[in-house]
Amino acid sequence: MTDMDAPLVTPCNIRICEVTCDSFRIVWDMTPEDTARATHFFIDLSRKESKDPNRFKHRDVPTKLVAKAVPLPMAVRGHWFLSPRTEYCVAVQTAIRQPDGDYLVSEWSQVVEFCTGDYAMEHLQQLHDKAKGSAGRLLKFSVFYRNQHPDYFDHVRKECGGLMHPALKDSSGSHGSPVNGKLRGVFFSCNTEFDTGLPPRDSPYGPLRFQVPAGVLLNPNIRLYFADFYCMYTAYHYVVLVLAPAGSEGDAFCGPRLPRLDLASNPFLTYTAPQQLGQGPEYRHASDVILEVLFTEPVHLDQGSVEQISGHHQLMSLTTADAKKDPSCKVCNISVGR
């Protein structure tokens, strides 16, 4: 048996590093002899939820990626449509390409697991740029509002001293948004109807509406961040924004993760300081997207008012609670995942 015919040692001590939302590097231990002989690496990647115990049943053929041998760690990017925040299983083989085109291969390594990351700032900027094209013109508004059922407001009054406390952001929208499941806030809307300039009469979230003057949440002491852009198999799109008081815990979370927007000049939500003595500030919202505004601090009911809406509240098809983003929409998806 020649050196070239000697069995390859099974790769061991697999390590995953430099993981992003759509790439990773992989490295493993090889003998000096195998390092010199190997011409190719076979990488088999699958989502963790695959329960097939015979994942590598074709043990002598590459099942996913065949790559020429390179110095380790090896970068893996673009060979699969990796999704953000997704758990994967990976195993490797080393191989020597024979003159007849066949491969002499090692045994598959042990399977290791890892999880991809959130969208990076560059990916959120891509989402922001797409959202900008759908925002439409800016319309004046005067209040932020939040609809809920009577039980919610009863609980706030009796158990929370009138304070609406921030809750953890759910998983609705883009899977890779850094705020999902990590940032706490109180959700508000600010969109108005074209004909009245007032909040819509209907809501899928409840028959009671808390309204607060816009200046309570949007003022020069507040920092504004872009967090997401998505749709739910519908023609209209949602933009998620975060309002965080400067220097707050929410601000510290958002600063390194989300694009910060200029309060006075952005496509979605603006505050314009009074231009003349006696004038008040001006507030505007984008007309062609539905804004979901996450305020990162508690809000007291005494800062606004709770009233019954004049329309219906059974529009449950419009609720975005844990709603999944349409992965086929060309308007709001970027190439790194959903």
Category from helices, strands and their pairing: mainly beta
If strands are numbered along the chain, what order do they take across the biggest sheet? 12-13-20-16-15-17
Please summarize the sheet with the most strands. 6 strands, mixed
> Residue-averaged pLDDT, rounded?
88
Shape: elongated
Instruction: Write the element-wise H/E pattern from the N-terminal end onward.
Output: EEHEEEEEEHEEHEEEEHEEHEEEEEE
* Rg calculated over all Cα atoms: 26 Å
Count the DSSP helices: 5
Task: Return residue spans where pLDDT drops below 50 for at least 5 consecutive residues.
Answer: 52-63
- Percentage of helical residues? 10-25%
* Cα distance spanning the termini: 51 Å
Portion in beta strands:
25-35%
Number of strands: 22
* Structural domain count: 2
Keywords:
single chain; 338 residues; mainly beta; Immunoglobulin-like; 2 domains; six-stranded mixed beta sheet; five-stranded antiparallel beta sheet; 5 helices; 33% strand; PHYIP/PHIPL_C; FN3_dom
Task: Give structural notes.
With 338 residues, this protein is mostly beta strands. It folds into two domains: 3-115, Immunoglobulin-like, CATH 2.60.40.10; 121-318, no CATH class. Helix content is 12%, strand content 33%. The chain is built from five helices and 22 strands. A hairpin with a 5-residue loop joins strand 6 and strand 7. The relative contact order is 0.16.
State the gist of this model.
The protein has helices at residues 32-37, 121-134, 150-159, 214-217, 249-254; strands at 12-17, 23-29, 40-47, 65-68, 74-77, 87-97, 103-105, 112-115, 138-140, 143-148, 163-164, 167-168, 184-188, 208-213, 222-230, 238-245, 260-261, 269-272, 282-286, 290-295, 299-300, 305-308. The protein is mainly β and 338 residues long.
